[in-house]
Amino acid sequence: MKKSTLAKLTNRENLLVLTYAPAGLGHLRITDALYDGLPKTVNPTVLGSQDKSIQTLHRITSIHPIGRAVFDWLQSGPFASLANGLYRASLRWDTGQVYQELARLMDERLDPPKKILVVSTHFGLAHKLAAVKKKLEKEKQVRIVLVVFVSDDTFQHIWHVDGADLLVVASEFTKRKYAAYGNKIGRHVRIEVSPYPLNPKWGKKLSAVAMREKARQLDPKSKDLIHMSIPVSGAAVGTEFSTQLINALREKSSRFRFHIVSKDAPFTRNFLSQMEGKPWIDLHVGKKDREVVDQYDLLLDKHIISLEVTKPSEQAFKAILGTQSRGGVILLFSRPVGQQEFDNLDFLGRHALIPSKATNAQLQDMTGNGVHMDPGLRARLFETARTWRAVRIPWDPQPAADFIWWLLTSGMLAQMMAGGQTRTGHGRHAELEGISSVDAFWDLAASV
């Protein structure tokens, strides 16, 4: 982090506010990464939305296929402009709570701030904040800077926030889409690219001993336990898939040890009760979203994790980290939910961090062949696999288990682990600066 950035963030005349919304764990995980990347001398205020309608919409569009289809259609179909306009208007109309919270923060300060830097990782809160920004600036004689971080590498109309001072995205590809959209609707927002902010804790380098243990986990000839993490999404998507996948993998080998990270909520309790008491499953459960995020960090501190089964949500960006880092696990992507998760896969594909769709399909077709594949093809795939940090797995649990087992026994996962060690998080491309990503974000945000 630049000295000039630190000076601005510690200036008593400035107030730093981080916001998040109860729409899945992703927005909170990003806010957490930004928070943890700040020096101890910086004391931000964290403002969480209590708007349950945001949480309800997230769950409906995540769990229910019809709800998801309708939402996607409204986002990009023929009525996208009308639908997004109405949605924006509804968000910007209901601003009473956000206004009161920001006003309270300013009134409670002994020395009223001259500038407030607000960072939002959810479009709902961002629109509400943008709507009250000018009113608060006039009433409180303060400058308010609103920085919005798009929490996936995706283009969606609703993330274009009129009134924001800065919209931050993870790639030039996505920046061009938002810029074109702004030109089309005649509302321009400053858009910049910054590497996806990954929690600095995840980038901590493993010791040589720990790295050898991690490598042995994916050695097909080893008998070491294979520690696999399975984070359950905030909307509890895919719990039935996870149940069947765990059972299928356990039937194949007693080497698998599963670590489930989940929220204790009405829609996860049946799943958690099925998992409880099995000696090959460890549950890491929190009653609140904040606790779930902390449980994941504690898991990485306590165990050396080599594999993770997850949706290609914001978790996909852990593929930027090298395998020698604490969070540098091999990612096994389950079925994407929503356009943003397909877009995240496209980001990884552009940087060769996952196999192409054709190659991934070719690998799945090889399942069952074990090591008995054409030697030339095997050599080519093994060499290419050294750049991969993740693969897509089948959407059905039994074929997914068969594929994971083949990746292990063929030595493909070992190749991915070994090749990934050469990556430090400092990529060949600016979009892959995993280790310094949080510092890069704060340098950009503080410059506005």
What can be said about this structure in brief?
The chain has 448 residues and is α/β, with parallel strands linked by helices. It has two domains: 3-195 and 433-446, Rossmann fold (3-Layer(aba) Sandwich); 204-430, Glycogen Phosphorylase B (Rossmann fold).
Name some characteristics of this structure:
2 domains; Rossmann fold; 448 residues; six-stranded parallel sheet; alpha/beta; single chain; 18 helices
How are the secondary structure elements laid out?
Layout: H1 3-10, E1 14-20, H2 26-36, E2 45-48, H3 52-63, H4 65-76, H5 80-93, H6 96-107, E3 115-120, H7 123-140, E4 143-149, E5 166-169, H8 172-185, E6 191-193, H9 208-217, E7 226-231, H10 239-252, E8 256-263, H11 269-275, E9 281-286, H12 289-302, E10 307-310, E11 330-333, H13 339-350, H14 357-365, H15 375-385, E12 390-392, H16 397-409, H17 412-420, H18 437-446
Parallel strand pairs: 1-2, 1-3, 3-4, 4-5, 5-6, 7-8, 7-10, 8-9, 10-11, 11-12
Helix pairs in contact: 3-4, 4-5, 5-7, 6-7, 10-16, 15-17
Q: DSSP helix count? A: 18
Residue-averaged pLDDT, rounded?
88
- What name goes with the CATH superfamily of the largest domain? Glycogen Phosphorylase B
CATH topology of the largest domain: Rossmann fold
Q: According to CATH, what is the class of the largest domain? A: Alpha Beta
> What would you report as the Rg, rounded to the nearest angstrom?
22 Å
